[in-house]
Design a protein that fits this description.
Radius of gyration: 17 Å
CATH superfamily: Aldolase class I
Distance between the termini: 21 Å
Largest sheet: 8 strands, parallel, barrel
Structural class: alpha/beta
Order of helices and strands: EHHEHHEHEHEHEHEEH
Number of strands: 8
Strand content: 15-25%
Low-confidence stretches: none
Helix content: 25-40%
Number of domains: 1
């Protein structure tokens, strides 16, 4: 399945894109290769302030802003949200405070990805321990971090299990990068080699990909998806 990425710096741009999704909903389901009874998916990328400063890139809108806009358009609709938090220690602390006070929409499924350094503390957080049926957590790895990992079983390292992984196939936060054939093939191999884990591959992918993508894998598309539905 394909996931349309929302990575924006303007509230107006987000609203226009969501209006387009509603207007062209039949095209959206066709592009994403999903049935209409499946919750509408969105992949929410957040380039948080200190992370953006460290990498000399533009920060994105905040989780509070994006989730608030989604509430305006889809509060009563079933959504599946994958949330990628790109941040350093201060960013992640601020994000933790936000989600600790956030009212999770019962109509939505949430899967939040944090760096492996923060995963254990988030699993033990107060909001995660509410044991909500519609909330799960995962780990993301940047390009250059996951390529040499043979296994994604982190029980020994973190003393806790993780089922969900996001692998960046370009460097996180930097626009204009291209997905190389070598990284594409390697990422797809990793998903096949770890059939008991769930993966999201993010960075340079197109909704026109005809690869034999594993059942445990979802693909994020930004430019390709939005270009297709704006035609």
């Amino acid at each position: 399945m394909f996931l349309p990425s929302v990575l924006e710096c303007s509230e107006q741009v987000v609203e226009k894109k969501l209006e387009m999704v509603i207007e062209k909903i039949e095209t959206v389901y066709s592009l994403l290769k999903i049935q209409k009874d499946i919750p509408l998916p969105f992949h929410l990328d957040f380039v948080l302030p200190q992370f953006a400063k460290d990498r000399s890139v533009m920060k994105s809108l905040s989780p509070e802003t994006i989730l608030g806009i989604l509430e305006k358009f889809f509060s009563s609709q079933r959504l599946s949200l994958t949330i990628h938090l790109m941040g350093n220690v201060q960013d992640i602390f601020e994000s933790y405070k936000f989600f600790n006070d956030y009212s999770f929409n019962p109509n939505w499924q949430y899967l939040i990805f944090v760096d492996s350094n923060y995963f254990k503390s988030w699993v033990n957080s107060s909001f995660a321990n509410l044991n909500l049926d519609n909330l799960d957590l995962g780990i993301w790895y940047d390009k250059g971090e996951w390529e040499n990992l043979e296994s994604f079983n982190l029980n020994q390292e973190l003393e806790i299990d993780c089922q969900n992984y996001l692998l960046m196939t370009v460097l996180a936060g930097k626009s204009g990068q291209k997905l190389t054939p070598q990284i594409k093939d390697l990422a797809l191999q990793k998903t096949i080699q770890n059939p008991n884990k769930k993966f999201i591959l993010d960075g340079g992918w197109s909704v026109e990909e005809e690869e034999n993508i594993s059942q445990n894998t979802e693909i994020v598309s930004y430019t390709s998806f939005w270009n297709q539905i704006s035609m």
